[in-house]
Amino acid sequence: MPRLTPAVVAAEKLGNASQPTILTGDGLVLRPWEPGDAPTVLDAFADPQIRRWHVRSASSLGEVAGWIDSWMDDWVGQVHAHWAVADSQTAAVVGRASLKNMNPTHGQAEVAYWTVPVARGRGVASRAVEALTAWAFDEVGFHRLQLSHSVNNPTSCRVATRTGYLLEGTKRSAGLHLDGWHDMHLHARVKDA
């Protein structure tokens, strides 16, 4: 069935191009994940806070290597886009920033992020989300980006509001965490709004 409106994001903007490196301009770089990042990811998912909010754990380097392979494949498939957030001076991975559930036709995606424990409190997540958002709007042409977090996660709420993601509402009992169902805040930004 033919569409009456064109795709918001052209296919060549994503999967047909190499995944870019994104500079924050303030000491961080978002770069594609590499197989050598597996030990850092394994350590990150041993952190109770990352497991609590991302509801995932890893038991081996091999398992994490599989995740990284799938993250690289997600770019080609235009499904999700995952970046390692690294210190531009030391190259140490300090977090992750992602666009999940990308819908190029409608120009929409979901933002996700985490920060390793030693990098918390330095604005890493906010800086990464701001750089990723600017890239998604200005370079790719997405129209709307949204993010969700548990109402019990005020740190993630601060990242959202600091980066201009307006609180649109609460999705009742929408996120299953280890301690049960959580209400989830929905934040969003719209290009040029």
How is the topology of this model organized?
Layout: E1 22-23, E2 28-32, H1 38-44, H2 48-54, H3 61-77, E3 81-87, E4 93-103, E5 108-115, H4 124-140, E6 144-150, H5 154-162, E7 166-177, E8 180-190
Parallel strand pairs: 5-6
Antiparallel strand pairs: 1-2, 2-3, 3-4, 4-5, 6-8, 7-8
Helix pairs in contact: 1-3
What can you tell me about this protein's structure?
The chain is α+β, with helices and mostly antiparallel strands and 193 residues long. The protein has one domain (11-190): Aminopeptidase. It is 30% helix and 33% strand. It has helices at residues 38-44, 48-54, 61-77, 124-140, 154-162, and strands spanning 22-23, 28-32, 81-87, 93-103, 108-115, 144-150, 166-177, 180-190. Strands 1-2-3-4-5-6-8-7 form an eight-stranded mixed beta sheet, with helices on both faces.
What descriptive keywords fit this protein?
about 190 residues, alpha+beta, Aminopeptidase, eight-stranded mixed β-sheet, 5 helices, about 30% helix
- Spatial separation of the terminal alpha carbons: 32 Å
Number of separate strands = 8
The CATH architecture is 3-Layer(aba) Sandwich
Strand order of the largest sheet: 1-2-3-4-5-6-8-7
Percentage of residues in DSSP E strands: 25-35%
Output the helix-strand order: EEHHHEEEHEHEE
Low-confidence stretches: none
Question: Can you tell me the CATH topology?
Answer: Aminopeptidase
